TrEMBL record:
The keyword Oxidoreductase applies. Keywords: Oxidoreductase. Belongs to the NAD(P)H dehydrogenase (quinone) family. It comes from Azoarcus sp. (strain BH72). It holds the Pfam family Flavodoxin_2. Its EC number is 1.6.5.2. This is Probable NAD(P)H dehydrogenase, quinone 1. One of its GO terms (molecular function) is NAD(P)H dehydrogenase (quinone) activity. It is an enzyme of class 1 (oxidoreductase). Residues 1-212 form the Flavodoxin-like fold domain.
């Protein structure tokens, strides 16, 4: 497979840096082709603005979606955006690797999404009618590709458990996995989360690498999270609400998994 790692950590000698290097080596050993977008090393510009369209009209009012679509369709996107889109087209699988900072991804990675996910590329595609509402949530430009999060946290696993103070890790990652990844079509694999990063010594690092290596070895075969497809009949259109007979009386993130009726917990 062609694997793209989008990596967001400012320190090459950090645990994250070592894990990224391990992942590249392990994947290449397995016969995969690997590219890395090291956002800090690239000095990635995170802010979406009018300069992302290289031929924007001077003095014109900036409209993020409209400008993004014009630049994408006319081939006038800035080179860094177009380059990352080419990597996504090339990739069969994408790994987003980052430390969990303030309950989400680092700002530089969010800025990669904001800019690379151009209108017409990752959203704003497909027909909108009484039976379909665009190609998204299981369809879209990136359909047929796999994606996985590799996330580190400073807290204990219990802090992110079903009754943990920080909230369940599946809930915290839902906007990224269901929104950023499933929305444009990725098959999203269960995340690989590494806890208590400040307590990982050499022996623990070997165990962490062994566990991560097993996930990388099965990147092509691991079953994806069973998110419901938007246009597959589970949702009313155009309201985009779950059909009343599905997960009756329930609400929250878990209802958007096809296993919700059977009481299977999210991811």
């Amino acid at each position: 497979m062609n694997v793209l790692i989008v990596y967001a950590h400012p320190e090459p000698q950090s645990l994250n840096g070592s894990l990224k290097d391990f992942s590249v080596h392990r994947l290449q050993q397995g016969g995969h082709s690997v590219q890395v977008s090291d956002l800090y090393a690239m000095r990635w510009k995170p802010a979406l603005d009018a300069s992302d369209n290289t031929v924007g009209a001077a003095g014109a009012r900036f409209e993020a979606s409209a400008d993004s679509r014009r630049a994408f369709e006319r081939g006038t996107q800035s080179a860094d955006i177009a380059g990352e889109q080419d990597k996504l087209r090339w990739a069969d699988a994408v790994i987003l690797q980052f430390p969990l900072w303030w309950f989400s991804m680092p700002a530089i990675l969010k800025g990669w999404v904001d800019r690379v996910y151009a209108c017409g590329f990752a959203y704003g595609v497909g027909e909108h009618s009484d039976v379909r509402w665009g190609q998204r949530y299981g369809e879209g430009t990136l359909a047929g590709k796999r994606a996985m999060l590799v996330v580190t946290t400073g807290g204990w696993a219990s802090h992110y458990g079903p009754r943990g103070i920080n909230g369940p890790i599946d809930d915290l990652l839902f906007p990224i996995q269901h929104g950023v990844l499933f929305y444009p079509g990725f098959d999203v694999l269960p995340p690989h989360v590494i806890h208590r990063t400040g307590k990982i010594d050499d022996a623990a690092f070997e165990r962490v690498c062994e566990a991560l290596g097993r996930r990388l070895d099965t990147l092509a075969t691991t079953a994806p999270i069973p998110f419901r497809r938007q246009n597959g009949g589970d949702y009313r259109i155009p309201e985009l609400t779950l059909q009343p007979e599905l997960a009756p009386g329930a609400s929250g993130f878990g209802i958007h998994l096809s296993s919700a009726e059977a009481g299977v917990p999210a991811v």
